[in-house]
Write a structure and sequence with these properties.
The protein is built from nine helices and no strands. It has about 190 residues and is mainly alpha-helical. It folds into two domains: about 1-30; about 55-175, Cytochrome c-like domain (Cytochrome Bc1 Complex, Chain D, domain 2), CATH 1.10.760.10.
Length: about 190
C-alpha cells in the first residue's frame, strides 16, 4: 500500500515537471508584452522579491530625510530614474509605456511612499530581474542611492522647491539606462 502511494506521488511529480517543461519548451508560455500574464505571475514575483529583500539587510539610511537630501535626490532621480518612472504632473514617457512590466510611476498615487526607505535603496542598488529595473550600485555612490531613496519614500510630501528642481531641464539630460542622453526637440547637433 505504501509503495503504491510513493510510486503515485513520484509519477504525479514527474508528470507535473514534464508538463511545465513542455509548456515552456513548446512556446506556449506568454512572453510577448501583449500576452496576458501567466497565472500567479505577479503574485509569485512580488512574493519572491519581498522575501529576498527581507532576507538581506541594508541598514539605516546614511542621510537625513530633509530638504537638502530631497534636492540632491531630485538631481539623481532626473538623471537616472525619470525616463522610466516619470515626473510629478507629467504623463509617462513613450519609453516607459513600451516596457513590460510597465515601470511604476513613482510620483503618481502612492508610488513607493509606503515602502521602507531601505527597500527602495535595495531595489535601486540591486535592480530587479526580468523587470527592466537595472542596478545602480556601480553607477551611483552610496550617498546618492540613499538620497534618491529618501526622496521617493517621501515623494508625497516634497516641497515646491524640490518639485521645481524635478521639472527643470528634464528632456535634454534624461536618457534610458545605458543609452545616450535624449536630445531636446529642435536642438542643434
Amino acid at each position: 500500500m505504501l509503495k503504491g502511494v510513493v510510486i503515485g506521488f513520484v509519477l504525479a511529480a514527474l508528470i507535473l515537471v514534464g508538463g511545465l517543461y513542455y509548456y515552456f519548451a513548446a512556446g506556449m508560455a506568454p512572453v510577448a508584452i501583449a500576452d496576458p500574464p501567466m497565472p500567479f505571475e505577479r503574485k509569485l514575483a512580488h512574493m519572491a522579491l519581498d522575501a529576498h529583500i527581507q532576507k538581506q539587510t541594508t541598514g539605516e539610511p546614511s542621510v537625513a530625510a530633509d530638504e537638502a537630501t530631497y534636492l540632491a535626490g531630485a538631481e539623481v532621480y532626473k538623471q537616472h530614474c525619470a525616463v522610466c518612472h516619470g515626473m510629478p504632473g507629467q504623463a509617462p514617457t513613450d519609453y516607459a509605456t513600451t516596457m513590460f512590466p510597465e515601470p511604476p510611476q513613482l510620483f503618481r498615487g502612492k508610488g513607493v511612499t509606503d515602502d521602507p526607505v531601505a527597500e527602495s535603496y535595495w531595489k535601486t542598488a540591486n535592480g530587479i530581474r526580468l523587470s527592466g529595473m537595472p542596478d545602480f550600485k556601480s553607477k551611483l555612490t552610496d550617498i546618492q542611492l540613499w538620497q534618491v531613496s529618501q526622496l521617493l519614500a517621501h515623494a508625497n510630501e516634497i516641497s515646491d522647491p524640490v518639485k521645481k528642481v524635478l521639472a527643470q531641464d528634464l528632456t535634454p539630460s534624461t536618457s534610458a539606462p545605458g543609452l545616450p542622453p535624449v536630445s531636446a526637440p529642435n536642438s542643434k547637433r
